[in-house]
Amino acid sequence: MSQKKVTIQEYITNKVKPVFDQLIARIVIEKPDDVYEWSINWLQNQKSGTQVYQLINHDLSEEEEEEEEVVLELKQQQKQQTRAAVSAEVYGDYNKKEDFKPRFIQKSEAQIERIKKRILNSFMFQALDEKDLNIVLGAMDEKKFQVGEVVIKQGDDGNELYVIDEGRLECYKKFTGLEEEKLLKTYIPGESFGELALLYNAPRAATIKAIDEVTTFALDRETFNNIVKFSAIKKREQMEEILSKIELLQSMDNYERIQLCDVFKEEKHKAGETIINEGEIGDRIYLIIEGELEAYWKGQTEKVYDYKPGDYFGELALLKNTPRQATVIAKTDVVLLYCDFNSFRRLMGPLEEVLKRNTERYEKYLQQ
């Protein structure tokens, strides 16, 4: 690839795209009659200091919440388009996907196996075929951090995501109107972070600090965008859509739901296999990605529900040690995502605290 092409690609990605992302979102919100004149005025107002639009913002005004919804809606529409849009990674005459040459960092067989074991625990990498998985394994770079070292900082641009191999890190976020950063969660080996900046081309949404000596595997933006991004976005959006339907989790905000996506793991079952049994104590909630299942009461004699992709079951397991109310069996081969009680609690704290944001809903579930 010539130097001219590289320069144009970087210019479009780093200079042009952030401006047009914001402009499109504002146009859809304002719906001006004269789009040209309104756009010129908006661009002139930005000259005094470009405002960086953050997709993930915990403390939004009413107008900003609407803007967030618009960007998410635009993102959904982009999935259905056959050519690249302004707010997608740009491919064109100066940026052809076939020109991509992934980086390769030499590793021992032991390192490769260690990285593979870690990344396959992350939902983002589970959809990769063998060829793409090997490209990602080759591009991963081992990076170590000392106690107290800041790995990523809220508001900075992001060019890598990290998969943790050893050690723990803490995630802090500074909210509007608060002087102190708020501790959101502790990351442990096997978890990943930093993907939001790459998925949505947004600034870092939080600050991550090492609290132990930490070893991570870092994946660069180019490899992520060309190999991982689109399947990861599709799976994350599918998960977010299902999570938004779960009444038990309605009190969570968008940022919390996005974070919750990261703790789900994938499992597959053959037709005829039993997923949960009536009367057993459950500790998992399940989201259905592919396939169909059936729910039965009273020893599999009475079918009470047919599950399809986009449905969920077992959500009460996140609230209390409740016996399963039905037996669920795979009607076809199925792909499920699950989150267990301990993972949810480590990320979000007790679900009771989330539910208490809506007293009526909290009391309803206490009675179940």
Automatic annotation (TrEMBL):
Transmembrane segments: none
Domain Cyclic nucleotide-binding: 124-245, 248-365
BP-aspect Gene Ontology terms: cellular response to stress
InterPro entries, A to Z: cAMP-dep_PK_reg_su-like (IPR050503), cAMP_dep_PK_reg_su (IPR012198), cNMP-bd_CS (IPR018488), cNMP-bd_dom (IPR000595)
SMART domains referenced in this protein's UniProt entry, alphabetically: cNMP
Pfam families associated with the record: cNMP_binding (PF00027)
Any coiled-coil regions, as ranges: none
Stored PROSITE patterns: CNMP_BINDING_1, CNMP_BINDING_2, CNMP_BINDING_3
Entry keyword set: cAMP, cAMP-binding, Nucleotide-binding, Phosphoprotein, Repeat
A Gene Ontology molecular function term of the record: cAMP binding
Family: Belongs to the cAMP-dependent kinase regulatory chain family.
Protein name per its UniProtKB record: cAMP-dependent protein kinase regulatory subunit
Organism, as annotated: Paramecium octaurelia
